[in-house]
Design a protein that fits this description.
Aspartate Aminotransferase, domain 1; alpha/beta; Aspartate Aminotransferase, domain 2; globular
Length: 429
Amino acid sequence: MDDSELESKFELGADFAARRDDADPLAHLADRFYDTDDAQYMDGNSLGLLSTDAEDALDAAVSEWRDLGIRGWTDADPPWFHYGEKLGDRLAPLVGANENEVVVGNSTTVNIHTLVGTFYDRAEGSKIVVNELDFPTDHYAIRAQLRQHGADPDEALTVVESRDGRTIEEDDVLDAIDDDTAIVFMPSVLYRSGQLFDIERLTDAAHDHDALAGFDLAHSVGVVPHDLSDIGVDFAVWCGYKYLNAGPGAIAGLYVNERHFGETPALAGWWGHDKETQFELNPTYTPADDAGAYQIGTVPVLSAAPLAGSLDVFAETTVEAVREKSLNLTEYLMFLVDERLPECEVGTPRDPDRRGGHVAVEHPEAYRVSEALKERGVVVDFRPPDVVRVCPSPLYVGYRDVREVVEKLSGILENEEYEAFETRGSGVV
């Protein structure tokens, strides 16, 4: 979309933002979320806000623990024994998967370990293709798994470089895949710039070379629709605390295509055992014949419960509707940055097919600018070297919020308010 199209679609005035909020079919969902002490919360791609639904689900789990004790494993609603699978069933539509292909369990990093470790053994090649702009935990886990398999990570890891420091050209990924590739493991959305990858294209390219395709969906699940099963993605991981709003350190999720069922996970644990015989406590491990095999330890009920509540919010809309609003909000944000903030650049792709749910606003003093925004009641985060990440999470952020954030940012830059803050720091993901 070029600048003239943006100008015709959006207006600078406050009346425009108010009209868009009044016409927003998702606006009522914001009432389900608690406000923080800040005026605008624009960090939902790091930690989503608490909803009354998530709070109620957590309270219910605590009550079941109090009232049922150990009987909660069989008599809670749903029974805790099947909690991971039941939540996986509810998550499946958000990632375009069959119910038995999705389960919740572990953390994102642990799930990368177990899935990469499992499928590296079974792949024909010896190399894993990643990119240099990945979130670091992905590389930590993959390099560790390569070492466990007797491979030198410096030789077995093919790292696709960025041409501009912001994005990765998909053609460069395709060029890096060859017949010695075992796994292509990419994020769906780059955590810094917000670039969205074409998962189908990358999956097809991997399969053309008899390699497996895996993805980290942490920055897209709950805000971008996926079709993992139809595309034929082999496996995927994600967290629950960003757009899914399931709380700090929330239980993670994973997907395994059904053609891979029956494999023994690299990190086997008793909670991934076949449920029919799990409590026979046999010394020999029998994996569940579905994605549930990749659970490791006992499901943490109090960590999983808020996800159950947050999915109640998603049940009242569709991920496609969430995506539509997200694209409109981020496009509006970019329009305002262009019009009101000549000192800044947008580091996020303009093409909606290449954009996730947040916008990278670039400025040489990004860290101090982010601190000045927090002083004005705007919660954002900073990513080195020069990115202020702004996330208008569509379930609880509106157009007036976005406009007010840009107005505050304009004042900070015009008055050089960031000069009052030290140059230092990083932040949470």
